[in-house]
Amino acid sequence: MTYDKAVIAAFVDGELDDLTARRIEREAAADAALAAEIARHRALTDRLQRHYGPVVEEAIPGELLKLLARAEADAPAPTVDTSLAARREAKRTRFAPMHWGAIAASLVLGLTLGTQPWQAPADVSTDGGALVASGALATALDTQLASNQRADAPVRIGLSFRDRTGRTCRSFEGTALAGIGCRSDDGWTLERTMPGSRQAIYRQAGSGELAAAAAAMMAGDPFDDAAERKARAEGWR
Amino acid sequence: MRFEEQLIDILPRLRRFARGLAGSAADADDLCQAAIERALKSQGQWQQGTRLDSWMYRITRNLWIDERRASGRRGVHAPIDEAAVQIAGDDADSVEAGTLRGDIDSAMARLPDEQREVVMLVLVEGYAYREAAEILDVPIGTVTSRLARGRDTLMLLLGEAA
């Protein structure tokens, strides 16, 4: 073996230039000791990543979300700035809610147009101008428990909570649509909507935004398993 | 996207980094909470266009080091350097007996802080050496040597030595 440990480590960490990396790969094919050393380094990285990886999937504690939601609510009003850049920024900011609304509307349109008699009903319908959940989405919001949902469920339920007006609300994420539905007499009114996981480009922004929106609407803590079950038994009232 | 929303996007990864540094979930979330508070307070110091994740990792790491130094002075934890000495001294017996083999948490806990943070940043969080060096504000050579020592110790403790 002609490489010292630092070079092997750098190789495993992806820090070498392509030429050197290819040379090491080639030599490892014929040099068992080198191959073993590479494997040993890789095994450690794999083990660490497997050990710490699940932390990323954990639900973010309510206290941390609340801290951020409170900061967002307390954010000072934008100062008046007449520069061109500031005006552009202001315009962009004002446009943002409309932008999401437009995406949601086009999704609804797409879902409606896509509905054929032989297909399941669309997940969203309109009721007096408000978006309400229907079909599989309404069923998921009615019945699915966050603590007990199948890994391949088409709609994932996130947080369930009571909002400041006393309604029970639940955040959800599907392939086409994600958002927050709040229960009223007529069903689940969609308070927030954004593109779902299929729109991969929005995905990363989306889940954070959804969590922030939920935290901002929340009165008290999100439901734990028992509270979620109880709320379901009581029809989410 | 708003500053707070960007922070929420980073939070899952930041919690993982904090877990690696602090060891326990409760300590890690305390650390995250302190880091968020610090970030919100010094929001003005973050430059738009630079990476918010690196900035947050730096804040978290600095808070952790401050905390460790403070508790070290209070005599709660062993001084930072003692862990390294210990590892050199009692390796063979306990490793041979399998008491430490396979337990990543206790192996990580025995690394000196400055090695543990490099191991987390490069091997778990996937930062390049240069990025890790920027987060920690040390030269790249320091990152690679700490990483090498950390790796050696972990392989020894976890029973992955050849």
Span of the ends, CA to CA of chain B: 49 Å
| Strand coverage percent of chain A | 15-25%
Q: Might you state the CATH topology name of the largest domain in chain B?
A: Arc Repressor Mutant, subunit A
> Quaternary status of these chains?
heterodimer
Write down the secondary-structure element order of chain A: HHHHHEEHEEEEHH
Main pleated sheet of chain A: 4 strands, antiparallel
Low-confidence runs of chain A: 77-82, 93-99, 109-121, 200-205
Query: How many helical elements of chain B?
Result: 8
The CATH homologous superfamily of the largest domain in chain B: Winged helix-like DNA-binding domain superfamily/Winged helix DNA-binding domain
Q: How many individual domains of chain A?
A: 2
How far do the termini of chain A sit from each other?
70 Å
Q: How would you state the average pLDDT of chain A, rounded?
A: 77
| Structure summary, number of beta strands of chain A | 6
- The number of helical runs of chain A is 8
Low-confidence stretches of chain B: 75-101
Taken together, the total number of domains of chain B comes to 2
pLDDT average of chain B, as an integer? Answer: 82
Indicate the proportion of strand residues of chain B: under 5%
Which class best fits the helix and strand makeup of chain A? alpha+beta
Helix content percent band of chain A: 40-55%
Biggest chain contact? A-B, 42 and 40 residues
Précis, in short:
The complex is a heterodimer of chains A (237) and B (162). Helix content of chain A is 54%, strand content 16%. Chain A is of the alpha+beta class and 237 residues long.
